[in-house]
């Protein structure tokens, strides 16, 4: 019998809330707390009486004292952070002060620079160990399931993994010329940054979208995909034995890239503040305000996502190749929880990670990336809770 405090009430949080309600045997009480309380109330109204007990609260997650007061009042066993990466450290501070377990889906980001580094959160390791509480970092899909897939491959199929390619394909179509599938600010920061991959012990940097490949994805078909830096590369490069190269590719359609280039060229994707009519604004935040809300894409998005990892390495001296991936249908997700597959594929693993902390399987003092923990119960839970995975021992490789 456990209580979870869910912070944030956006696209991802909505899915996690639905899944906690379905999994009421583990989550018998949840509190949904966010900056805009009406969004929490709307979720409660939709789901009240369908599983666990639900309460709501208003909270500014940038404010540690407010968070501590809320945690002391609700007394959760875990805080599931589904606000934005900017709030990770304040929420971790509040968890430390109240000795409450912590889980998130994205690494901390300072608002003024796009860094994608774990160092700030890894710095909490000793303090979480001393407090006897668990922090799970990046329990979404990527990061998240991609790390669990890596740990699973390492545990069951390889003595050493030498190459990992993470392939993130969204074959969905929302019918808009340009929209982002999750928080536009975070999404555009990610794709407009330089690309980077790990090879032979060092980072190799590329221009944004410089490296392109074409891949034929199961149940989606052929798509253009581009090499990006993605935060799980940092932890996987450290945590997977024998790794020589690790890359991340994401698919983008031509319309998305053309719009993005144009927005970049006119300065709309910048995170440098500018003055507008006597007020300081950040162009990217203004752009977010005029783009479709990702949460509104659910009813209009058709098609599938296919996200997974291709591993190459050795077992008992022999070469082994292994591809493990999940295919998720946007409309099926919408029918089940009222969200498209990008939110779904993130929100379900957040619930699963929290469940494993609560039932003890992933509970140990410290700060962990998901690949550092036993992948087996997570892999089982993916099949049970809506993200079944498939294996291919003879996949087409990415050159
Ligand atoms: P949304 O923008 O839809 O939702 C963010 C929510 O956080 C909103 O409800 C927002 O409130 C709330 N929030 C923002 N700032 C504060 C604050 N200071 N205090 C309290 N609440 C706040 O984002 P998503 O749901 O799309 O994404 C959520 C997280 O998931 C992000 O960190 C994102 O990076 C991560 N993510 C991870 C993925 C993965 O696979 N690992 C994939 C996709 C997303 P308000 O409604 O007032 O704006």
TrEMBL record:
Which parts of the sequence belong to the Saccharopine dehydrogenase-like C-terminal domain? 140-386
Signal peptide range in chain numbering: none
Q: Give the keywords, sorted.
A: Oxidoreductase
For molecular function, the Gene Ontology terms on record are: saccharopine dehydrogenase (NAD+, L-lysine-forming) activity
- Please list the residue ranges annotated as the Saccharopine dehydrogenase NADP binding domain: 5-136
Q: What Gene3D superfamilies does this protein's entry cite?
A: Dihydrodipicolinate Reductase, domain 2, NAD(P)-binding Rossmann-like Domain
| EC numbers on record | 1.5.1.7
One short Pfam name that applies is Sacchrp_dh_NADP
Q: Per its UniProt entry, what is the enzyme's top EC class, as one word?
A: oxidoreductase
What InterPro entries does the record point to?
NAD(P)-bd_dom_sf, Sacchrp_dh-like_C, Sacchrp_dh_NADP-bd
Sorted alphabetically, which PANTHER family does this protein's record hold?
Answer: CARBOXYNORSPERMIDINE SYNTHASE
Q: What is this protein called?
A: Saccharopine dehydrogenase (NAD+, L-lysine-forming)
Source organism phylogeny = Bacteria, Bacillati, Bacillota, Bacilli, Lactobacillales
């Amino acid at each position: 019998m456990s209580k979870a405090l869910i912070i944030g009430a956006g696209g991802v949080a909505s899915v996690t809330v639905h899944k906690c309600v379905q999994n009421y045997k583990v989550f018998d009480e949840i509190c949904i707390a966010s900056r805009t309380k009406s969004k929490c109330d709307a979720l409660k109204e939709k789901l009240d009486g369908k599983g666990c007990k639900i309460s709501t609260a208003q909270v500014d997650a940038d404010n540690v004292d407010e968070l501590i007061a809320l945690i002391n009042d609700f007394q959760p066993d875990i805080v599931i952070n589904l606000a934005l990466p900017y709030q990770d450290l304040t929420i971790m501070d509040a968890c430390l002060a109240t000795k409450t377990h912590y889980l998130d889906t994205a690494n901390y980001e300072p608002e003024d620079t796009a860094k994608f580094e774990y160092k700030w959160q890894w710095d909490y390791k000793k303090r979480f160990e001393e407090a006897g509480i668990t922090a799970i970092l990046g329990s979404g899909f990527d990061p998240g399931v991609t790390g669990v897939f890596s740990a699973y491959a390492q545990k069951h199929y390889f003595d050493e993994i030498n190459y990992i390619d993470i392939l993130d394909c969204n074959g969905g179509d929302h019918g808009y010329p340009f929209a982002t599938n999750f928080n536009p600010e975070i999404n555009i920061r990610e794709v407009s940054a330089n690309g980077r991959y790990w090879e032979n012990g060092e980072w190799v940097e590329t221009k944004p979208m410089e490296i392109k490949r074409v891949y034929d994805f199961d149940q989606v078909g052929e798509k253009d995909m581009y090499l990006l830096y993605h935060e799980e590369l940092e932890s996987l490069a450290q945590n997977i034995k024998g790794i020589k190269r690790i890359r991340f590719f994401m698919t983008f359609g031509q319309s998305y890239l053309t719009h993005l280039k144009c927005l970049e060229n006119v300065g709309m994707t910048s995170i440098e503040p500018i003055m507008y009519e006597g007020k300081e604004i950040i162009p990217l935040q203004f752009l977010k305000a005029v783009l479709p809300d990702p949460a509104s894409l659910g009813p209009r998005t058709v098609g599938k996502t296919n996200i997974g990892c291709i591993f190459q390495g050795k077992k008992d001296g022999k070469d082994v190749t292994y591809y493990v991936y999940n295919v998720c249908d946007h409309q099926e997700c919408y029918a089940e929880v009222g969200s498209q597959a990008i939110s779904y594929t993130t929100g379900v693993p957040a619930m699963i990670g929290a469940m494993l902390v609560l039932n003890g399987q992933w509970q140990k003092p410290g700060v962990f990336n998901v690949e550092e923990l036993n992948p087996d119960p997570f892999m089982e839970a993916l099949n049970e809770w809506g993200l079944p995975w498939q294996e291919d021992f003879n996949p087409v490789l990415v050159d």
